[in-house]
Write the structure tokens for this entry.
Amino acid sequence: MTSEWQHYAAALRASRERLQNLRVDDPALPVCIAGLSRIESMLRRPLRIVVLGEYNSGKSSLTDLILGKGLLPISVVANTSVPVLVSYADSAALFGVDSNGIQIRIDGDEDDALTDLDFRAVEIRLPLPWLKHHQLLDTPATQTPAAFAAEADIAIWCTVATRAWTESDRNLWSTVPSRCHRHALLVATHKDSFYSDDDCAQVLRRITSVTRGLFRDVLLVSAADPNAETDAAGDTGETLTSDAATVRAAIETSAQAIRERRLAKARRVTRRLARLALHEFGQNAVRPEAAAALSKWDAVSDQLIDDHNATRLSLDHALESLLHAFAHTAEVLRPGVIRGPARQTPSSTPLHAPEPAQIATQRASVLKSDLTAVLRILATSSRYESPDAREQREAARATLLTLADLDGAFVDLGRWLASHKLAISTSRAQANV
């Protein structure tokens, strides 16, 4: 099932490719395209799950449990003193990472054993669908957990259930930044060491009580049990043990929250990026006869903003005056384009300007830039321009408008101005009474 963030990432890619394929020479586009590429990469970046814990706490066994029993080469990596990253690839491979960050494949028939090589990290790549959106980093107990905390989207602290949450556990976890706690999991391994479900429940209650506020969830699992039944399925159809399914479900709860936050950030940054590109777009394509009208608009709008910043003009009056100046300039650039109660030209297309969210708190200078971008649309259509060039530029502008989410923007602005005026009129009437 394709999630919302995947739909949005695909839409960003389509918009970026559309802009890249257009034959439009405008300095605003390369910056926007590069920004869209970075946002798309941020959305698609796999979540990094960092497994932490003391020596022999079951970290590698838990990593193997999450992936699927027997898929992780435990005999190779269980006792390494370097981090082990498990990520996705179309075919399985094992790499060593040297001190310069260079990856060297070490799983060939003629390669040396891992213990004979001096690497600062090991990367295992497996063709598991789950790894397309997740990475697992198994960390060595010889290094402080805080060193890996910056890399964690989700941190998992492993502790042995029979001696769970010792003083050393608490001291080491205290070095991890508190911002990691929101999505952290505490996993007590070796559940199979207990004789009854009551014992397990009692241990789980105790650990949950003494670690309250430090982890989002506390789990008790048998990470090292080679005979555990595979009686559950992962979200990609893999067969998992019930404990593995429990851990994955806990990971996915945090992952969903992280992806929702990423998506909200991506949408916010994309709108901002597209608006900035739209503010600059088309400056070299303005008709010569329209340049004077735009210059006059710049002078009038800048003066209104200066008056507002100097508190000589209230926000509602500044916005209303900007709109009046905008409407006048739009009519000069293309008569009949503004639809109003006094006059309406059926043959002309009414102008629909942008609609930013929370317009009441938007700065007048940003609104001025939005309005300037709209006016430039009216000032760049020349009869002497080739149809192909006009089509290419309009396609680029339409893509930017969609990304900026500016359609219908003045609807909210008009509502805010109307409601603000009503509030002022009501207060004045009450004062007169």
